[in-house]
Amino acid sequence: MNDHRPPLPDLxxxxxxxxxxxxxxxxxxxxxxxxxALAGSCDLFAGxxxxxxxxLYLLPLQRRWLLPRGDAPEYTDxxxxxxxxxxxxxxxxxxxSELVPLARAADAFAEAGVRVLVSxxxxxxxxxxxxxxxxxCRDAVRVPHTVLLEEGTASAFAAGLPAVAKPRHGSGSRGIxxxxxxDAADSLPHDGTYLLQELLPGTEYSVDVLVGPDxxxxxxxxxxxxxxxxxxxxxxxxxDRPDLSRLAVDVAAALGLRGICNVQVRGDREGRPALLEVNxxxxxxxxxxxxxxxxxxxxxxxxxxxxxxxxxxxxxxxxAVRHWEDVVLAPDGLGTVAGRA
Length: 341
Known about the structure:
3 domains, alpha/beta, 24% helix, Dna Ligase, domain 1, Rossmann fold, 6-stranded parallel sheet, globular, D-amino Acid Aminotransferase, Chain A, domain 1, 24% strand
C-alpha cells in the first residue's frame, strides 16, 4: 500500500503557543497513549478517580488531579471548574461514563474556551444502546440479526441457536451468555433490557477511526484481536483490509460520530465481516494504531484547534505484542497529586 503519510501537525500553530490538554482516565491504556503521544507538543494534565492510576505518574506532581466518578452528579461542574483553573484548551475524556455528561455540557465548556473530544449526545446514545446501534447501522453495513428478548423469542429466533444474549446497555463482556437452547434464556430478563443476537463465530477485528469535526473520516486502521486480556488486545496484526476500513467508516457516518472511535467487527458463519460493537471514544489499543503510523491523538487535537485534517492518512502493516512497563517513583511518590477537581 502507499506508505506516504503527511507530517505531524504543529499543535502550537493555532494558538501561537503549546495547547494545554487535560486527559481523563489516566489509569487506562487510552489515557496513557494520549499522554505519551502528546508529550513534548502540549502542556499536559492528567486526571483519574484513582490516586494510584499509572498515567498520573507520567507527569509531574502539579499536573496530576483526582476526579469524581464520571457518573457522579457533580462530575461536569467539577471538571469545568478544573479546566478553568488549569486554563485548558482541550479536554480528552477516555472513560465511557464521562461521555454523555460531557457531550451535554459541551456548550458550557466551549464558552470557557475548552474544546472537548466527544461526539454529540445523540450519537453517543446510539452507540451505548446495543439495540439502537444495530437499528441505526442496519442499512449501512452487515449487522447481526438482533431482537429484544421477550417470551418465546429464543424458540422463534430467525438466525437460529446458538445465539448470544447480552444486556442492551453496558460495556465489555459483563452479562453476556450463549443461548444454546430456548430454555437457556428463561433465567434472563424479558423486559426489554436484554437482547438476543446472531452468533458471529468468525475472526474478530477492531478498527480505529479518526473523524474530523466536519464528519469526514481520514483514517481507519484495522487490526486482528489475536489475544486479549480483560478485553484489551495484547497481540495483534495491523493489516491492509479496505473492506474492514470501509465498514468502520460507514458505521461512524451512520452514527454521526466525531473524533476518535473504535468499531469492533466479527466474521459471520460465511466469513463476512459484521458489526459487533462501537466504542465512541479513544480505544485501549490506540497505541498500536500510532505505531502503525497514524498519530490519532495529535490529529484529533489539531482538528479541535481548527486545523484542517488530511484527506487520508495511510497506515503500515505490522504485528505487535504488548507488555507491562514500570513507572519507578521515590518511596513517598505513590498517591501524590496536585489536588482534587
